[in-house]
Specification:
Layout (H helix, E strand, L loop, with lengths): L7 E6 L9 E7 L1 H12 L8 H8 L12 H17 L7
Antiparallel strand pairs: 1-2
């Protein structure tokens, strides 16, 4: 038996002014999670590690918007990413 936990990943998308709320665009575990993380790294998308949040988001279907009870947590992550993008000089839509 393999005691090592499988890696899990969930990707969210949100376009301010277009989307009602962030929604799940990719999710998986094991090799799929590794591919999601690899794609994020290749595109210089910041990665936030939060196993509890990944577990909750992993229960959602693809293209499903996040439930209101996760808005605050996800908003904090998007704010974190926004600030990183701003610091490295990426163009951020207004």
């Amino acid at each position: 038996m393999n005691s090592e936990k499988k890696k899990k990943a969930v990707a969210l998308t949100y376009m301010n002014g277009i989307d009602q709320a962030p929604y799940v665009t990719a999710k998986g575990e094991g090799l799929i999670a590794e591919k999601i993380i690899s794609q994020a790294e290749q595109h210089k998308i910041p990665i936030q590690e939060d196993p509890a949040l990944v577990s909750m988001l992993g229960k959602l279907d693809l293209n499903q918007i996040i439930p209101p009870e996760l808005y605050q947590t996800v908003a904090e992550i998007f704010a974190f990413i926004y600030n990183i993008d701003k610091q490295v000089g990426k163009n951020i839509p207004k």
